[in-house]
Amino acid sequence: MAESVLRVAGLTRSFRTDGGAEVRAVDGVDLVVERGSTTAVVGESGCGKTTLARCIVGAIGPTSGRIEIAGTDTSGLRGGALRAMRARLGFVQQNPIAALDPTMRVRDVIAEPLRTHGTLRGAALDGRIRELLELVSLRPAVLDQRPGELSGGQAQRVAIARALSLGPDLIVLDEPTSALDLSVQAQILNLLLELQSRLGLTYVLISHDLDVVAHVSDQVAVMYLGRIVERLEGGRMQAAARHPYTLALFSATPTVGADRRQRIVLAGDVPDPAHVPSGCRFRSRCWLHTRLDSPAVCAEAEPPLSGDGSGHEVACHFADREPAQPMS
Ligand SMILES: Nc1ncnc2c1ncn2[C@@H]1O[C@H](COP(=O)(O)OP(=O)(O)OP(=O)(O)O)[C@@H](O)[C@H]1O
Ligand SMILES: [Mg+2]
What we know:
- The chain is an alpha/beta fold.
- It has a domain at 4-222: Rossmann fold (3-Layer(aba) Sandwich).
- 32% of the residues lie in helices and 21% in strands.
- The strands form two sheets. It has an eight-stranded mixed β-sheet with strand order 6-7-8-3-9-10-12-11, sandwiched between helices.
- Helix 7 (182-199) links the parallel strand 7 and strand 8.
- The longest helix has 18 residues, at 182-199.
- The radius of gyration is 21 Å and the shape is globular.
- The termini are far apart.
- The structure holds adenosine-5'-triphosphate (ATP) and magnesium ion (MG).
- Adenosine-5'-triphosphate binds at residues 15, 17, 23, 25, 45-51, 94, 208, 273.
């Protein structure tokens, strides 16, 4: 069996809003990521993707649940041990330019993790920085620039170089292409794929774009209001998708969703996360719920994420219905 780099179990992270309400941005997430693979996390804005990412890389602590990195439970770690663990994780944050310290030169942005956690100094450190630049196809001239002087694509390459600097066990990529122009998006995605095959990297790839993830992921977790509502294998995900939310996401995705018969338009907005609907949290926007004349079970019981052991799991009381097509 493949070695798992990341194991997340029952992860919950709450925030208190200004009004005093509790928001569970991440609400009971389980995730296992094998070494050398890509796991995508997809879902609409506000579903908890960045919060999940920040918990995984240790930028914030979980409210409850367990995170294991390469077999080590991170919850008991403090001080130096925690810093050493965080050094094994690369994080490419949403919005590349904003994520890089505007006052630092690119040289220092890339060197910072190496100086803090590594042993290289002087010429050896310089050599490593140049090696990283080469990996992300940047010219040495950028080393003396500041993030504000870079294009979005260049800034993202710098962020990737920084994430690679310590040879991480896992790299978490939070919407790595969504802030970029279309042509640049493809370049960055190709770079990430090339680096993965050259260096054997493990990715958690966060995206709201099924088009991006459908082609590059081994495993896809679909999130809605803090929870995983469907887990699929990457390759066959479109044919396998069963959750009404996943089907709606597919139908809104021009290329991969093209053979769906009709576009599904979800009713209303994502509910306020401080007031999650009872039972199935997707119920208030679910086209299937409406089509089945609003069965009571959807309001009464939260459907568990369950499957047949093949790796495909769905959290819907009506996941076994036939056929899977959304519209009649
Ligand atoms: N520091 C915080 N304080 C209070 N609420 C927060 C905080 N961070 C996130 N939230 C709330 O948690 C929920 C999830 O936010 P998060 O940023 O994780 O979503 P996301 O899926 O990354 O969205 P996007 O696609 O827009 O990046 C949102 O309702 C958000 O308002
Ligand atoms: Mg986000």
